[in-house]
Design a protein that fits this description.
alpha/beta; 2 domains
Length: 321
């Protein structure tokens, strides 16, 4: 069906348990091979009472953070049944190959670029459902995590359109995992806070209490924060976070274009500018970033050794934690 349109060393140091150099890492050729290759037909779904998509319904579905293999089985089931797939900018087009019978409509919204208005997208979903189509609204990550899924679902319900919600793996968890960064680790944190880097106006969210976030959350995961990272870093530092706190910015994860910048809170703006990184990106602030030194599994799968098997400097085997 046609598509319609609506690694290098920078040289900083951290005062963390083990001092680290700020580095930008891209996937090696061998690691990229893990992502390469055309999409194969989706495997047959196991026996289960899979829901049937009915005409006039809209299913809002998370497509995961990028790798088509991270789709849920419910998402695969939906792709096989849809008449129309309306998809976002962060949905890999390979995923659309699993819905060859459907009309594909692009409705991506990217900061600083011409994009469809949210109202128009929501009302187009209503229009398609009223025309008797089986509509799949496919969103990167999870539709209810900084994805406007709640707004679209509310619009549909207000217009009498039946809906189904299919969660997806959010980039703030899955994208960081592909970079070898766990958002929780017992030796690091008992809390994690997910925030957005901009509000509806496109500015740094004024409603966020950065002092409370800084003091109350050991690890902070920031979505869509690249544009305002200088201001966000300043707010966190002013609230008491260390200039030398480990930070990672992971771009286009988990795809073969993934890049990871390991730096510090005090130098992140300069370092990502120098590295030429660009959205989409997830930013992680906290000591869990150090775990990438031992958990960069894609580099290890490509034959590289871990940089440090005890990045937190605990001096004991992990199994004794």
């Amino acid at each position: 069906m046609g598509v319609l349109v609506i690694g290098r060393t920078i040289g900083r140091a951290s005062d963390a348990a083990n001092r680290q150099m700020a580095v930008v890492c891209s996937l090696s050729t061998r690691a990229r091979h893990l992502h390469k290759g055309g999409m194969t037909p989706p495997p047959p779904l196991p026996t289960h009472a899979w829901p049937q998509m009915e005409p006039g319904w809209v299913w809002l579905c998370g497509a995961g953070p990028g790798d088509p293999g991270l789709l849920t089985l419910h998402a695969a089931n939906a792709l096989r049944q849809a008449d129309v797939v309306i998809y976002d900018a962060l949905v890999q087009e390979q995923i659309l190959e699993w819905a060859p019978q459907a009309q594909h409509i692009y409705a991506g919204k990217r900061g600083g670029k011409p994009s469809a208005k949210q109202r128009d997208i929501s009302l187009h979903l209503v229009e398609l459902a009223r025309a008797g189509k089986k509509v799949l609204r496919l969103k990167g990550g999870d539709p209810f995590v900084f994805g406007r899924g709640g707004e679209e679902a509310q619009t549909l319900v207000q217009h009498g359109i039946p809906i189904r919600i299919i969660p997806g793996i959010s980039a703030g968890i899955g994208g960081l995992a592909y970079a070898g960064i766990p958002v929780t680790h017992r030796d690091v944190n008992q809390s994690v806070t997910f925030v957005t880097g901009h509000d509806q106006s496109g500015n740094t969210p004024g409603s966020l209490d950065w002092d409370s976030i800084s003091k109350g959350s050991q690890v902070i995961v920031i979505y869509m924060g690249m544009k305002h990272i200088a201001q966000i870093a300043d707010k966190l530092i002013d609230a008491g976070r260390s200039l030398h706190e480990p930070v990672a910015e992971v771009t286009t994860a988990p795809t073969d274009e993934q890049r990871v910048d390991e730096t510090t809170l005090g130098t992140i703006f300069e370092d990502i500018t120098e590295a030429g990184l660009a959205p989409p990106a997830i930013i992680c602030v906290g000591q869990s970033v150090l775990m990438r030194q031992v958990l960069d599994w894609q580099s290890m799968a490509a034959g590289e050794l871990p940089r440090n098997t005890d990045p937190l400097g605990r001096g004991r085997p992990a199994e004794t934690a």
